[in-house]
Write a structure and sequence with these properties.
The structure holds three protein chains of three kinds. Chain B contains one helix and two strands, in the order E-H-E. Chain B is of the alpha+beta class. Chain B is elongated and about 35 Å long. Chain C has 19 helices and 14 strands. In chain C, strands 2-3-1-10-9-7-8 form a seven-stranded mixed beta sheet, sandwiched between helices. Classes of the chains: A mainly alpha, B alpha+beta, C alpha/beta.
């Protein structure tokens, strides 16, 4: 994950606290979604950024997660996501994010 | 999930971008605390 | 009317495994871990492997991307598999180091006597050798050991071998003139010059007949007072012997080539200039960007080539494909930044404006990054995702039925084959193929689509992009009917 984004996440987790903060990601592939989710939940696996060794434990979801979909009004969803929901594999992305943020973290 | 929450939108250029996620979050009643888009190509 | 046409396009590659370590990612990662560096050096490709690599042959245009063999491409051979082919060549590393010295006007490069001799000898027999300032190679000979020790300098290696050269910074403190920035700029200049020389001499053009050169590469040359000052284009024009040309650079991240073609076509149609060349060199910073994914998957380091491209735009000759200026699609500030909104603005809106549908376009050329390079690092298949988005929108619009989406992707799209240097992948790499198909009549319309991630500069959250239609020349249609 971008080093600047890592710093922003660290700063926001300190000012808002874990329960108030949700991270929503838009990665196109399960593999990159998993790496991003793992970084947010358990720290930077590449040990390059501010989240190296930092277990933020934040709630992280993919934007195509069905739970997120239910909360977004249809007109906004159609305009902003639209056919991307068909182009990307929402179920696989949702699962990859859940696994990487909750499992034992052995993602690529 | 989103309503009343501070939300960080981490988009990807090839998937769903930061601004697109942010627009969904705001429409769902969340507050966008930070939004960014990454590009890997 | 001066309808603008593209009369010729050439593409070159320089295989530079020794320079990959100076790519942005490897230069940050290799010094951290000796074991990673060892594996990296063991995983560099040979020149013959790089020449035979099917996507490289597609880039040279010896085979169409849709004729590429099934993947994996690593370890297989495609096209003519020869160094010279299509409208260009793959240049080996020693010659490229010689070329760097030949286009170096500031004495930045030092070479060992052995390397300089071998490079000069090879370039003397190169078909374009007589157009290069080969005397500069001899003048670059010096104490490479000493030059490497100088503060801020960078070593130049041939493959995994020892250092055979060095690049010095031009200023001790100016961050815009460090050795690594200058090596990026010089690499871009060298590969763009090579492409332009092929364009001019392979097509028997008079170098003095070209009025203007537009650069659309990724480097922003300058100094501390103006980091993106620009005009590498004029430097390239000079190096290629275009004594009557001037030039400028167009910057727009990876999208720059399509705006560059648009400007070139506009200058021709308006009569400001008769002949305008569009050029770009390779992006050193992007070499080895995904090497970690390649090593993890036991692949060679695949981002080991610098690309170069040159195309010539002039007034209608009755034969060459027409750049339709009324087809320009732009991404408005208000268009929205989601992938479908961008595709809508760039592909669908212009077609609708012209009274055409997506099925009136034979080939869509967009972001043709080689998926064998991007997938191992988790970035997926970029062109396929674009084509699926486009096909989904075409289906939504009623141009095709939902079940026709896969066929649309397969017949109007194509596998990615470009090195992961965004400006080359952004439609531009398809230009030689487009010219061939539109001239032969195999295709009637080709749409080139480029996207640029301008949000990376932190001044905006916006993206940008532009599209342009290339159309078969009506003069040819009439000619054929008359036969």
């Amino acid at each position: 994950m971008d080093l600047d984004s890592q710093e922003q996440l660290l700063r926001l987790s300190e000012t808002h606290g874990r329960d108030d903060l949700v991270v929503v990601i838009g990665a196109p592939d399960p593999e990159s979604a998993a790496v991003t989710a793992e970084t947010i939940a358990k720290g930077d696996p590449s040990y390059a950024g501010a989240l190296a060794g930092v277990q933020l434990g934040l709630e992280v979801r993919h934007v195509l997660d069905e739970e997120i979909r239910q909360e977004v009004p249809d007109d906004i969803w159609d305009a902003q996501i639209g056919v991307m929901a068909d182009v990307l594999d929402g179920a696989a992305l949702t699962e990859a994010v859940a696994k990487a943020s909750q499992g034992d973290g052995a993602s690529g | 999930m989103l309503k009343g929450k501070q939300v960080v939108a981490l988009g990807e250029r090839d998937g769903v971008s930061g601004p697109a996620i942010a627009a969904c979050v705001e429409a769902a009643g969340g507050t966008v605390a930070f939004s960014a888009t990454e590009c890997f190509v | 009317m001066n309808a603008p046409v593209v009369v010729a396009a050439t593409q070159v590659l320089a295989h530079v495994p020794g320079m990959v370590r100076h790519g942005s990612k490897p230069s940050r990662e290799l010094p951290k871990d000796a074991e990673v560096e060892r594996k990296f050096l063991e995983s560099l490709r040979t020149f013959d492997e790089a020449v035979a690599y099917p996507p490289h042959q597609a880039y040279l245009s010896t085979l169409h991307p849709r004729a590429l063999p099934e993947r994996p491409w690593v370890g297989t051979t495609g096209g003519s598999a020869s160094r010279f082919g299509g409208g260009g060549e793959v240049m080996p590393e020693e010659e490229l180091l010689g070329l760097l010295a030949a286009v170096d006007e500031a004495g930045l490069v030092t070479l060992t006597p052995g390397l300089a001799e071998r490079a000069a000898a090879a370039l003397r027999t190169h078909p374009l050798g007589k157009h290069l300032a080969l005397d500069r190679i001899e003048r670059a000979v010096g104490d490479v050991g000493g030059a490497r020790e100088a503060p801020g300098s960078l070593a130049l290696h041939v493959g995994a071998g020892r250092a055979e050269g060095a690049v010095r910074p031009a200023d001790e403190v100016d961050q815009a003139l460090t050795a690594s920035v200058l090596l990026e700029n010089l690499s871009s200049k060298a590969t763009a010059t090579l492409a332009l020389l092929h364009l001019v001499h392979d097509h028997d053009l008079d170098p003095q007949s070209i009025d203007y050169v537009i650069g659309c590469g990724e480097e922003a040359i300058g100094d501390r007072y103006q980091r993106g000052g620009g005009n590498l284009a004029k430097a390239v024009a000079h190096a290629a012997g275009l004594s009557e040309a001037s030039g400028m650079d167009i910057k727009n991240f990876c999208a720059a080539p399509i705006p560059a073609l648009m400007v070139a076509a506009s200058l021709v149609q308006s009569g400001v200039f008769k002949r305008v060349a569009v050029v770009a060199g390779g992006s050193l910073a992007k070499l080895g960007m995904k090497f970690q994914g390649h090593l993890r998957n036991d692949l060679p380091v695949l981002e080991d080539v610098l690309g170069g491209v040159a195309a010539l735009v002039e007034a209608d000759d009755g034969v060459s494909p027409i750049l339709r200026l009324d087809s320009v699609g732009r991404h408005r500030v208000s268009a929205g930044g989601s992938a479908p909104q961008i595709m809508e603005a760039l592909a669908l809106e212009p077609l609708q404006r012209l009274g055409l549908t997506t099925t009136d376009v034979d080939d869509f050329a967009t972001e043709l990054h080689n998926p064998e390079i991007t997938e191992p690092q988790g970035s997926g298949n970029v062109p396929e995702r674009n084509y699926r988005t486009l096909a989904a929108l075409a289906s939504k619009r009623g141009d095709i039925a939902r079940e026709e989406i896969p066929a649309f992707v397969q017949t109007r799209g194509m596998p990615g084959f470009a090195p992961t240097q965004g400006h080359l992948a952004s439609g531009l790499c398809y230009l030689p193929h487009a010219l061939a198909r539109l001239t032969s009549g195999e295709a009637r319309r080709v749409m080139m689509i480029a996207k640029g991630s301008l949000f990376l500069g932190r001044m905006s959250q916006l993206s940008d992009g532009m599209s342009l239609l290339l159309e078969r020349n009506q003069g040819q249609e009439k000619g054929n009917q008359g036969e």
